What we know:
The protein is an all-alpha fold. It folds into two domains: about 1-75, no CATH class; about 80-130. The chain contains seven helices and no strands. The protein has helices spanning about 1-5, 15-25, 25-40, 40-75, 80-100, 105-110, 115-125. Helix 3 crosses helix 4 (about 40-75) and helix 5 crosses helix 7.
Amino acid sequence: MVxxxxxxxxxxxxxxxxxxxxxxxxxxxxxxxxxxxxxxxTARKLTEYQTELRNEERRNEREKAAQKQNRQxxxxxxxxRNRATQAFWAMHxxxxxxxxxxxxxxxxxMQLSPHSLRKWRDRLDAGELELARASSPLSPSGR
Length: 143
């Protein structure tokens, strides 16, 4: 391991830990031997290189987490299941508005979550969802 570092093949931190564990060394002792055998400049460069690798890995993990979070925020989808869910909530919001009931009363009567009902009502009012409305004589949109 120390010879590999001397040749410019910088070991990754995980490999250093594994090597130290196998040889019953602490990383501090390993670093001291490294400084002694290959020189202080090479040991310092190795430490800087490993620090840069760790920082790069953290940056990549943060970017992946941000991308994942952005993907999860998209609430409107075109697949059939989500369209059915949107239609379900649109029907309940329309029935609640047409019946003149409040959110809590309607949610309690239909055994729905008031939070979800409010969230979907706000989405529909904001125009975030575009649903084809049926024009039946019973629905308020068909009047």
